[in-house]
Design a protein that fits this description.
CATH topology: Rossmann fold
Structural class: alpha/beta
CATH superfamily: Vaccinia Virus protein VP39
Shape: globular
Helix content: 25-40%
Number of strands: 9
Number of helices: 6
Number of domains: 1
Radius of gyration: 15 Å
Distance between the termini: 26 Å
Low-confidence stretches: none
Strand order of the largest sheet: 3-2-1-4-7-9-8
Amino acid sequence: MRVEDLDFRVDSGVYAPAEDSFLLMDAIDLDRDDVFLDVGCGAGLLTLGAARIAKRVVTTDISLEAARNTLRNLKRNGLTHLCSVMQSDLLDSIPSAVLFSVIAFNPPYLPCDGATTDMDHALLGGAKGTELAERFIQQAIRHLRKGGSVFVVSSSLANIKDLKNVMVNCGLDIETVASLSVFFEKIQVLEGIQQ
């Protein structure tokens, strides 16, 4: 997805796109027939890229500030007519009958280390780093069309084995579709395909 020519701004307190965001964007290959769900949209970079390609985009974030930031970025780029933006804890606000062909989440994926920062909500995924991503997978599978894909970002610092086990137990065929070594960790994008 190309985003070079977007009018894109990140508000204070909202997760700014970083290497993991761009790795996820590059790993997803959308087409015009896709109905896409971006969970944990942050400032909306993935949402904006998807809105230029997919038939329909829904985007959520638990942070009201992030949802508002995404909506403002969509407005700046004339893409609001293609997207629905909502504040939601993962997929809790998505009606059970709504299905997507592609669902993506760049979750907080670092294990808790005892230190605290103002951005812990965007960085820490639980004691082992995968608890939030595991809960996402369990919800996402109920909203995935047959043959659809779920993409999730994880770190070598987290317990990726547990995350992969949850994906397999949910009936997904999984593959690591992108990875990047950054400083002291390896960031991976896992794709799970519904059979």
